[in-house]
Design goal:
Number of helices: 10
Order of helices and strands: HEHEHHEEEEHEHEHEEEHHEEEEH
Number of strands: 15
CATH superfamily of the largest domain: Alkaline Phosphatase, subunit A
Radius of gyration: 22 Å
Largest sheet: 11 strands, mixed
CATH architecture of the largest domain: 3-Layer(aba) Sandwich
Shape: globular
CATH topology of the largest domain: Alkaline Phosphatase, subunit A
Structural class: alpha/beta
Helix content: 10-25%
Length: about 475
């Protein structure tokens, strides 16, 4: 009786605390291949994103936020571990050639495990891509700290919006779609398209919120929109209907791309509305971003809709258009409304920031920093090391940002390119010859930032 009374009193005291003093629920929505310029609030004029624009108006919009990489698996690994691609285990999309190279290791502490240990209920709904059966089990979602999972384990399986099955934890959930050419990863194009996976996954994410409204939770909602189904080639922008773009005189892939983003925007609106309806708005921080820049796949042309805005490059580039991504943060009472920030931060900052919000200590040796002051507008974030990326498809490429200076190296033996992002966000003017002092310093920082990995060897000239 006394114990029950004490618990009740503690709960009443907790509820009496102001919102800022309580541990917030955390939601991170990660779109797939959504470009910096694909939101109305960032200048998109071809199609509308009213719910995301409202999220920006009610929260903070960051114009210089960065993904962890320029393709999905390494970018998501950086978000989960707080370690950049020069030190993380996952540095690229390895696929079946080396499945362990694309799996988080057992020794790595994901942000999900960190929050799970802090008493949060953790759920992942959508695309994972960092662990699978068949040699990559160390990275399976439930091994990495997620209490609940529904979606795609394998990134190639996630190409198909009408798959034959999805996964609920370690159980295969059959769907009514028929995929006659399905490969071992689950990729292919459906002949019978009965159940749209994105809609199923979005509904599961909302159900997770309803089910755990009474305790702190971390929801990682990772829709595959607007990624293409690469196996469907020119038909790859798969969507059940074209919505408000059905009558537009546009190329078919462009209409489908706009309809996919319309669907994504709708479901972000549904999620925010549910938080308000349940009285969780002031107890929740919602992050929205994308894993990399826009693609040129499935017949889609990013130039048609100016999906990278004023930035140079797209997915698979280390120029700004490949790695600078939308970033909105919403949290009534915790995050100031209507603020636009040009502060630079990136996916590696999420784990230490989540740890600070949850009131726990992050693992040692992370490459990110706690950016809570950027979110709240109070205080200043700690000094940070430079932002670093490396990419291993089609040769070895590197990029590094320190302050407003950005260095890019397109091969192990390529000359360094140098850009002043304050004056030249489109990276049109290479200043390496004009500023050899800065170019030399960034080249040294680039070399110091990384360690060699046997899974991701670098072929250097003369070796």
């Amino acid at each position: 009786m006394i114990t029950r009374l004490v618990v009740c009193l503690l709960l009443l005291l907790l509820l009496a605390l102001p919102a800022q003093a309580r541990r917030p629920n955390l939601v991170f929505i990660l779109a797939d291949d959504l470009g910096w310029g694909d939101l109305g609030c960032q200048g998109q004029t071809r199609f509308a994103t009213p719910h995301l624009d409202r999220m920006a108006a009610e929260g903070v919009r960051f114009t210089q936020a960065y993904a962890g990489s320029t393709v999905c698996a390494p970018s998501r690994a950086v978000l989960m571990t707080g370690r950049h691609t020069g030190r993380a285990s996952v540095r690229g999309n390895a696929g079946r050639a080396n499945p362990q190279a694309q799996a988080l290791r057992a020794a790595e502490v994901s942000v999900a495990r960190l929050l799970q240990d802090a008493g949060y209920r953790t759920g992942l709904f959508g695309k994972w891509g960092l662990g699978d059966f068949g040699g990559a089990e160390t990275g399976l979602p439930w091994v990495q700290g997620f209490d609940e999972f529904f979606g795609y384990l394998n990134q190639r399986h996630a190409h198909n919006y009408y798959p034959s099955h999805l996964w609920r934890d370690d159980r295969r959930v059959p769907l009514r779609n028929v995929v006659p050419d399905e490969d071992a990863d689950g990729a292919g194009e459906a002949a019978v398209k009965a159940e749209y996976a994105h809609d199923l996954i979005a509904d599961e994410a909302l159900t997770f919120i309803r089910r755990h409204r009474g305790r702190p939770f971390f929801l990682h909602f990772t829709p595959t929109i607007p990624h293409a189904n690469n196996e469907a080639r020119a038909r790859g922008m798969e969507v059940p209907d074209l919505g408000p773009y059905a009558d537009r005189d546009w190329p078919a892939p462009q209409r489908a791309h706009a309809a996919m983003i319309h669907r994504l925007d709708r479901d972000v609106g549904r999620l925010l509305d549910l938080l308000r309806e349940l009285g969780l708005g002031r107890d929740t921080l919602v992050f929205f971003s994308s894993d990399n820049g826009p693609h040129r796949e499935g017949g889609f042309n990013p130039e048609w809709s100016d999906s990278n805005g004023p930035l140079r490059g797209i997915k698979r580039d280390l120029y700004e258009g490949g790695i600078r991504v939308p970033m909105l943060v919403w949290g009534p009472g915790r995050v100031p409304a209507g603020r636009v920030s040009d502060a630079a931060w990136w996916f590696a900052d999420f784990p230490p920031t989540a740890a600070a919000l949850a009131g726990v200590r992050p693992p040692a040796g992370l490459d990110g920093v706690d950016v809570t002051p950027l979110l709240t507008g109070r205080g200043r974030p700690p000094a940070r090391p430079p932002l670093y990326w490396e990419f291993h498809e089609g040769g070895f490429k590197q990029a590094l940002r320190e302050g407003h200076w950005k260095a890019v190296r397109l091969a192990a033996d390529a000359p360094l390119e140098l850009y002043d992002l304050n004056r030249d966000p489109g990276e049109a003017h290479n200043l390496a010859a004009a500023r050899p002092d800065i170019a030399g310093r960034l080249a040294r920082l680039m070399d110091e930032a990384r360690t060699d990995s046997p899974d991701w060897p670098v072929k250097r000239p003369g070796r």
